[in-house]
Amino acid sequence: MNRPADQVDTDGPAAGRPRRIVLLGSTGSIGTQTVEVIAAASDRFEIVGLAAGGSNPALLIEQAVATGALLLAVSDESARTEVEARIERDWPADRPRPTVSYGPGATSDLAGAETDVVLNGVAGAQGLRATLAALAAGHTVALANKESLIAGGPLVLAAAKPGQLVPVDSEHSALAQALRSGTHEEVASLILTASGGPFRGRSRAELADVTPTQALAHPTWAMGKLITTNSATLVNKGLELIEAALLFDVDYDRIAVVVHPTSIVHSMVEFTDGSTLAQASPPDMRLPISLALDWPRRVPNAAHPVDWTQAQDWHFEPVDHVAFPAIGLARTAGRAGGCAPAVFNAANEELVAAFHAGRCGFLDIVDGAADVLQLWLDSEHAAAGNPRDVADVEEAERWARARSLRTIAS
Ligand SMILES: NC(=O)C1=CN([C@@H]2O[C@H](COP(=O)(O)OP(=O)(O)OC[C@H]3O[C@@H](n4cnc5c(N)ncnc54)[C@H](OP(=O)(O)O)[C@@H]3O)[C@@H](O)[C@H]2O)C=CC1
Ligand SMILES: CC(=O)[C@@H](O)[C@H](O)COP(=O)(O)O
Ligand SMILES: [Mn+2]
């Protein structure tokens, strides 16, 4: 079992100095909250590098000025002119200017730069190369980018030394915390909680005409577009099922999902004696982010606790797998292994983009991903087993993306 608590040196990489952090995806939801966490705990953390896609150069340079990060990476080459102009305009004259790398390889290069922790907050399977680069460089990886594990599971697990991968995802952070209290043999099952998304309680027929705006109205979390849409389809919970199986080395038949609409209990571990440990806190990613950055130490005041002076009403209900078949599909993909999870995820990413572009309906996302997964499982590719390298994963993803577009066309 990859249990971060067991392996990480509690004194940190060099006691007495802040942990150096490279933050990938700094301008996104996870990225901006990470900057906040680090600003509030500057005695513990120091940002040395920032990477972003390039859609918001103003924010990236503002973050670099505020944090003092001198290594920047921008994956979209076309953002160069605006980034340079922002530096020219906003960079303090009395400070050395940052080094900025551009292009598709810039983020992975930064992930391998000298640091203690790389927090990967890039959205989507495009984050895989950076995760592998950070692991290869020996850094601790605080992993928000769950798609790294989904797409490149066998490669990531082979590259990660015990304790090198620390989950940021709220459910997996909850599980890692609860697992501190037991041995692998004592674990009966993992129970992931799901908010149920904005369409909880609707039948399949009632999902046919939902709009992108409705899908982006998450009931409890403010997150990026891809993960928020994945929460609405429950694909997010399917991906998290695979993430849990890989991170904690627990069989798929011992991982369950339960709907908990208020997202206060972030997940639970059931032990063999009938005991269940749950981690509870109001929905606020600053808690799991701070814990991952300083794992296994807790950062005081990272987030507010539950207010126990107020009445609490925690509700749990089963998942409606007919209206929301994504978890079952992910279970199939995870059990099949190899590139099947990468295929399922890539098809989903492509169809989510199509949904937001008005090219398909909400139900077409999971229906299309199901079709593409089945095509893969029925093809000769599935027999090939585990990917040998990232190129194999990317080849499978291209295959899946091309076929998902065909499912829309048909
Ligand atoms: N948001 C949340 O609360 C949670 C998120 N996660 C996971 O964390 C990850 C990030 O999610 P979220 O923050 O919501 O997503 P966002 O869409 O809000 O942010 C994504 C970030 O990645 C940047 N980016 C895109 N491409 C690249 C690239 N090639 N190199 C470097 N940076 C890049 C984006 O920059 P730009 O905008 O310029 O393209 C942006 O800064 C996802 O894997 C998600 O599943 C997990 C749990 C909770
Ligand atoms: C905050 C976080 O970890 C998200 O992955 C969250 O869990 C999404 O909510 P859902 O439970 O609706 O998928
Ligand atoms: Mn989550």
Comma- or semicolon-separated keywords:
410 residues, alpha/beta, 7-stranded parallel sheet, 4-stranded mixed sheet, 14% strand, binds NADPH dihydro-nicotinamide-adenine-dinucleotide phosphate, binds 1-deoxy-D-xylulose-5-phosphate, binds manganese (II) ion
How is this structure best described in words?
The protein has helices at 4-7, 29-39, 57-67, 80-90, 106-111, 128-136, 146-159, 170-179, 212-215, 225-233, 235-248, 286-293, 326-336, 340-356, 362-378, 390-409, and strands spanning 19-24, 45-52, 71-74, 99-102, 117-120, 140-143, 165-167, 187-194, 255-259, 265-271, 276-280. The chain is α/β, with parallel strands linked by helices and 410 residues long. It contains 16 helices and eleven strands. The strands form two sheets. Strands 4-3-2-1-5-6-7 form a seven-stranded parallel beta sheet, with helices on both faces. Strands 9-8-10-11 form a four-stranded mixed beta sheet, with helices on one face. It is globular. α15 (362-378) packs across α16. β2 (45-52), α3 (57-67) and β3 (71-74) form a beta-alpha-beta unit. The model is unreliable at 3-13 (pLDDT under 50). It binds NADPH dihydro-nicotinamide-adenine-dinucleotide phosphate, 1-deoxy-D-xylulose-5-phosphate and manganese (II) ion. NADPH dihydro-nicotinamide-adenine-dinucleotide phosphate (NDP) binds at residues 24-31, 51-56, 75, 107, 121-123, 126, 144-147, 169, 221, 223-225, 227, 285.
